[in-house]
User: Which sequence fits this backbone?
């Protein structure tokens, strides 16, 4: 087949395409939609079911977040309490300790010394604390840190 | 009736992606029905195919993304049509007589040529299903040969030659009608 034959052929085929384009395939009858929806039981409930699933999922996520935050707070609280009980937490700056710090030198090295002593552990509040008075507290502190022995030796 | 090109019902990028069955029907069924009608050359069988597929969709728990649903429906309708064609070849029965084609309103040619419509229907029905399919995709869905090849799982050259042979056959069957255009 030559190029001229091809062109003539294509031209004739365009005529067929124009005939086809004067028509279109018939659409579905109106009742098909109703028939399909009726034949698919539960189809009408699909959207509510989906929404329910979404809300259940959201509620689950919210409950999970709430549980995570609660557990985190509880864990912080427990670890703080345990740290205070075993003496590894921050120094517990009691009224006696404050008075002792004032007695030493107010805001200078004495306060730092006392804070270090408190952090060391034995000075935690509770039954171990000999609440007899400032002088006894000071002696107790100095004994705990070895300062009293040095002074006695001198 | 409007003269918009026939589409396969695929929604645009801003359409709601989560649809229920009714919405999936509204988005896709018209294009699928026209496609099935031409492929089967039988509107009544097309109705059956489309109905079967939508009912299966309702019970299948398929993904609700409409683009995925549209692609699924297209494949499912095609498979259903070929299943019906095989069954029909075994058990040939007289189909209910309904129009396969309707005229597109045209201001320059307001009259509907019933003789031409009937001749074209007869000619289309005489084509092989694969030829009818490619004619529908090319003429009524404005698909490229590459898209047709992908949709029908054949090489591009096969898609193009099926179309060419289909038009040659239609021209032969339409005779003077095709020459007049």
Assistant:
């Amino acid at each position: 087949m030559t190029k001229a034959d091809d062109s003539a052929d294509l031209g004739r085929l365009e005529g067929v395409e124009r005939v086809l384009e004067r028509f279109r395939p018939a659409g579905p009858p109106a009742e098909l939609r109703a028939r399909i929806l009726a034949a698919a039981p539960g189809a009408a409930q699909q959207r509510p079911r989906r929404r329910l699933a979404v809300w259940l999922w959201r509620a689950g996520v919210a409950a999970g977040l709430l549980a995570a935050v609660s557990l985190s707070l509880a864990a912080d609280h427990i670890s703080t309490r345990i740290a205070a009980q075993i003496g590894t937490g921050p120094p517990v700056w009691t009224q006696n300790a404050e008075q002792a710090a004032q007695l030493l030198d107010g805001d200078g090295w004495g306060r730092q010394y006392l804070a270090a002593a408190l952090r060391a552990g034995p000075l935690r509040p509770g039954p171990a604390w000999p609440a007899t008075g400032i002088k006894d507290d000071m002696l107790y502190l100095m004994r705990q840190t070895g300062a009293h022995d040095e002074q006695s030796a001198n | 009736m409007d003269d918009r090109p026939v589409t396969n019902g695929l929604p645009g990028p801003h359409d709601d992606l989560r649809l229920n069955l009714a919405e999936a029907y509204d988005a896709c069924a018209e294009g699928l029905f026209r496609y099935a009608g031409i492929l089967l050359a039988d509107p009544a069988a097309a109705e059956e195919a489309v109905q079967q597929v939508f009912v299966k969709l309702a019970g299948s728990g398929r993904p609700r993304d409409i683009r995925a649903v549209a692609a699924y429906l297209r494949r499912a309708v095609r498979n259903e049509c070929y299943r019906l064609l095989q069954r029909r070849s075994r058990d040939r029965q007289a189909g209910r007589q309904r129009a396969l084609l309707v005229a597109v309103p045209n201001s320059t040619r307001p009259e509907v040529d019933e003789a031409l419509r009937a001749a074209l229907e007869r000619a289309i029905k005489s084509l092989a299903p694969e030829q009818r399919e490619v004619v529908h995709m090319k003429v009524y869905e404005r698909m490229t040969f590459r898209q047709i090849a992908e949709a029908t799982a054949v090489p591009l050259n096969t898609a193009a030659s099926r179309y060419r042979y289909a038009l040659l056959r239609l021209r032969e069957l339409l005779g003077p009608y095709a020459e007049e255009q």
The beta strands of chain B are 101-103. Confidence is low (pLDDT under 50) at residues 1-18 of chain B. Chain B has two domains: 21-90, 114-180.
